[in-house]
Write a structure and sequence with these properties.
Number of helices: 7
Shape: extended
Mean pLDDT: 85
Distance between the termini: 49 Å
Helix content: 55-70%
Largest sheet: none
Order of helices and strands: HHHHHHH
Low-confidence stretches: none
């Protein structure tokens, strides 16, 4: 295994070449068996860390929740045919998925912009926005979207300017206030 690593590092082989060869080798091959055992060790070490660390489990759960929230939004956006893609063409399937993600990301962008605008108005009116409240906001909202109605598009309309410094100053104030409380 060390020779393989050194060969890759020296540029004699690429990692993809080694992986391709290992994928076609017999399971009786000693190098294949060694890498397979190493993979089991790495997986076992990770599982032990996962079981022993509440913080790691929390981080992973949060990432899974974000991913599932995006998937739920993308499914909501691509509501036609219950999300089923009726083509066998890989290019067409990718195109449909990419278009769905594009529309989903546009919706997320709009939601973040509107939430930022509203937060800016609230801060301007003197409200304090806690860091916990900011952390709990989600850009995956759909209740304000009319999927089935008629839409008008004004290409000359410009979005309202946001004062990003006001938002960052408010967050900096919240962070410094929480550090004083905690410290």
């Amino acid at each position: 295994m060390l020779r393989v690593v050194l060969s890759i590092k020296a540029g004699k082989f690429t990692a993809s070449t080694i992986l391709r060869k290992l994928g076609t080798y017999s399971h009786k091959n000693k190098l294949y068996q060694a890498f397979s055992e190493l993979g089991r060790v790495v997986r076992t070490v990770f599982l032990l860390e996962y079981l022993g660390s509440e913080e790691l489990r929390s981080i992973i759960q949060g990432a899974v929740n974000k991913s599932e929230a995006f998937n739920g939004l993308a499914k909501w956006v691509g509501f036609g045919h219950s999300g089923t893609i009726f083509t066998n063409s890989r290019d067409e399937q990718r195109k449909i998925i990419k278009y769905n993600h594009l529309v989903s990301n546009c919706l997320i962008f709009y939601n973040v912009f509107e939430m930022s605008r509203i937060l800016q108005e609230l801060i301007g009116e003197g409200y304090r926005i806690d860091e916990e409240v900011m952390g709990a906001l989600s850009p995956y909202l759909t209740g304000h979207i009319n999927r089935f109605g008629s839409y008008s598009l004004d290409l000359n309309r410009q979005p309202q300017e946001l004062d990003y410094e006001l938002l960052s100053e408010s967050m900096a104030h919240e962070v410094s206030a929480s550090l004083k409380i905690d410290g």
